[in-house]
Structure formats: structure tokens, C-alpha cells
Amino acid sequence: MPACLYVVGTPIGNLEDMSPRALRVLGEVDLVVAEDTRRTRALLSHFGIQARLQALHAHNEQQLTPVVLDRLRQGLAVALVSDAGMPLLADPGFPLVRAVREAGLALAVVPGPTALTAALAIAGLPVDRFVFDGFLPARATARRQQLAALRAEPRTLVFYESPHRLAATLADVAAVIGPDRPLRLARELTKRFESVYAGSAAEMAQWAAGSGVDRKGEFVVLIAGNPSPEPGVELAAEQVLRELLAYLPPRQAAKVAARLTGGKVNALYQQAEGLRASLGEDS
Questions:
Q1: What 3-state DSSP class applies to 194?
Q2: What is the pLDDT of residues 177-195, one digit of tens each?
Q3: In b/e form, how buried is each residue of 252-277, taking b as 16+ CB within 10 angstroms?
Q4: One-character DSSP codes across 12-39
Q5: Are 148 and 270 in contact (CB under 8 A)?
Q6: Where are the alpha helices (DSSP H) in 103-213?
Q7: What are 82-97's pLDDT values in tens digits?
Q8: Beta carbons within 8 Å of 208's beta carbon, 6+ residues apart
């Protein structure tokens, strides 16, 4: 094969989704760089493919990128895969792909499944325009601040979330985005127990907080866009809060900001807490 970095999509669950082209490329390249070599070795072994593997993950990507560039300059063909789905989408690979392109070396994509597009296809929410925001922050204050910044977004919102943070994240969505906003949860896509749960943000938060809920596997969270966005309100509220926080604690600042901007006190309080945290980090 010619020297090239092949960005290869692999199944997100059902192994029948592995494309013939992906099998051919992975069987012919000189090196496969993988997020987790153990999982990729098991996948390739299932299809009878033996390949030279090299781990590339968030902790070594900067160090390994020059090594891969050298392999490409030597005339080797390299494939990049993640644990499941398309690399780079909430997975490692971006620094490597950028470096390969900047170096003027060859790149090719071998498309495959992604949880993102699979969930959008069956969620029953508008998909002509959407915003994918990867994983929300793990810390509650940062997560609420990010959600507040997206509250007026008219496009469908899509996130990935881990099972152990699902209940907390959905509680924040209901509080910050709004309890009545339509929401979908997709899990185990393409697998035997594929499921999509539908309801309001408040209903889904209550469901996720319940006992006996099956939280295996990562979730795709899809939230309907704001049907009547007011793009100027968020900026105005932030400006008001920044000024008030210089003189008032967050709760009082939120009450005053609510009277001035017409926003909701609870949402503004969450935003104020996030701003106070960020202002504290900057100082």
C-alpha cells in the first residue's frame, strides 16, 4: 500500500457493521495505531487479521505523533482506529491527523459507524442542524456553566455521557436547560439491547435517578433545541452577573440579574456560580 494515514471507522457494537474496505485496509497496512491495543487486537482476531499494533491514546499522543510521521515518511502505510466508531469524535487522533496534514503527507478516510449519527437517525428530533459537544465537564460547576451557554441554542444538542455521571448530568440539564425540553437517551446502539428513551428533561432526570436503572455502556444524550431562542439574553445576563459579582454573593446577584434580564433565578444562580469559579481561577 502507498504511504498514507488511513482513518478507519470500526463497529460501535455489532461486528456485522465492519465494512469490507475497512477489513482490507487493516489487513494490508504496515502499522495500526489504536486507542486500546487489547480491544483492537480482539477485533482484528475475530476477522482473522494479524497486524502490528501501537497504542495511541490521550496520554501519549503528543509523543507518538512524530513517530508516526517518521513511519509515513519511510513509506509505510498506517491505520488509525479508536475503540469503537470513528476516531477523533470524542476520541484520540486529532493532533496526529493535523500533524499529518500540515506535513503534506497523504491522508484517507475509511468511513464507519458512529454513535453520534446512529443516535440522531432514530431519536426523532430535528437533524438538519445539530451541535455535538462531546463529553460535558465532569465537575458540576463547569458542566452547568457549559449548559447555560447552550440554553438558547436553536439546534439539536448532542452529548456523550458515562453511566456513572448520567443522573447528575440530566439533573443539571433539567435545571439549566429547562425541565420541559424534549430529551432522548440512546444506549447500546447496534447491540442486542439497543434502547432509546424519550421524555422531557425532568422526566429523564427522574428516570435516571431511579433505582434499578440499567446504566451499562455510554449514553448519547440528545436535547431538542430552543424553539424560541433569544441569542442576546445570554450575553446580557453574563455581563450583568459579572458586574454584580464584584459586589454581591451569587444568590443575590442572580436575583438582581433575573429582574434586569427577565431570566430565571435558579439558572442565573448556576451561571453565577460558574462565573465566580472561573473568576477565582483567573485571579
A1: coil
A2: 999 999 999 999 999 989 9
A3: ebbbbbbeebebeeebbbbbbbbbbb
A4: SS-GGG--HHHHHHHHH-SEEEES-HHH
A5: yes
A6: 115-123, 140-149, 166-176, 201-209
A7: 999 999 999 999 999 9
A8: 166, 167, 170, 185, 215
The answer to whether the beta carbons of residues 169 and 205 sit under 8 Å apart is no
Give the three cell numbers for residue 69.
510521521
Helix (H, G, I), strand (E, B) or coil at 92: coil
The pairing of strands 4-8 and 31-34 is unpaired
DSSP codes joined into one string, 224-255: PPPSS--HHHHHHHHHHHHHHTTTS-HHHHHH
The DSSP element (H or E) to which 280 belongs, if any, is helix 265-282
> What's the DSSP call for residue 188?
S
Strand-by-strand arrangement of the 195-200 sheet: 130-135, 156-161, 219-223, 182-187, 195-200
Q: At what angle do helices 265-282 and 166-176 cross, to 10 degrees?
A: 110
Contacts of 271 (CB under 8 A, 6+ apart): 144, 145, 148, 237, 238, 241, 254
pLDDT of res. 91: 92
The CA-CA-CA angle for residues 21, 13, 185, to 5°, reads 125
What mean pLDDT value characterizes the chain?
91
Phi and psi torsions of 83, nearest 5° = -60, -35
* DSSP β-ladder status, 53-55 and 31-34: parallel
Helix/strand/coil percentages in the chain, nearest 5: 45, 20, 35
- Residue 234 scores a pLDDT above 80: no
